[in-house]
Amino acid sequence: MDIFSPKHLLIILLVVLIVFGTKKLRTIGSDLGQAVRGFKESMKEGERDAEPPPPVEARQLPPQDKAAPAEKSSTTEKASSTEKTSV
């Protein structure tokens, strides 16, 4: 004896119809459908949020002359040393 035979499923369906009534079953079905749609929409929104942002194009900075800052610091040191000696 199979529990899911068509005869058993028909009996279960009749009992459910008698207990709940058709109007209540229709309401339950529509509520269940709305819940599934809401779940699918939130899953799609989550996937959109989880996608990485598009890559930003990297700008190439012009090469900087490393000697220029060293010259500035040495001239500053010379100026400060001349001020000390002249005082």
Regions with little confidence, pLDDT below 50 for 5+ residues: none
What is the general shape?
rod-shaped
How many helices? The count is 3
Query: What class do helices, strands and sheet pairing give?
Result: mainly alpha
Proportion of residues in β-strands? under 5%
Mean pLDDT: 76
Oligomer, anyone? single chain
Strand runs, count: 0
Please describe the biggest sheet, giving its number of strands, its sense, and whether it closes into a barrel. Answer: none
Q: What is the gyration radius calculated from CA atoms? A: 40 Å
Cα separation of the termini = 114 Å
Helix content: over 70%
| Order of H and E elements | HHH
What's this model, at a glance?
It is built from 3 helices and no strands.
Structure description:
The protein is an all-alpha fold and 87 residues long. Helices cover 74% and strands 0% of the residues. The protein is built from 3 helices and no strands. The chain has helices at residues 6-20, 22-50, 67-86. The longest helix is centred in the middle third of the chain and has 29 residues, at 22-50. The radius of gyration is 40 Å and the shape is rod-shaped. The model has no long low-confidence stretch (mean pLDDT 76).
Descriptive key words:
87 residues; mainly alpha; 3 helices
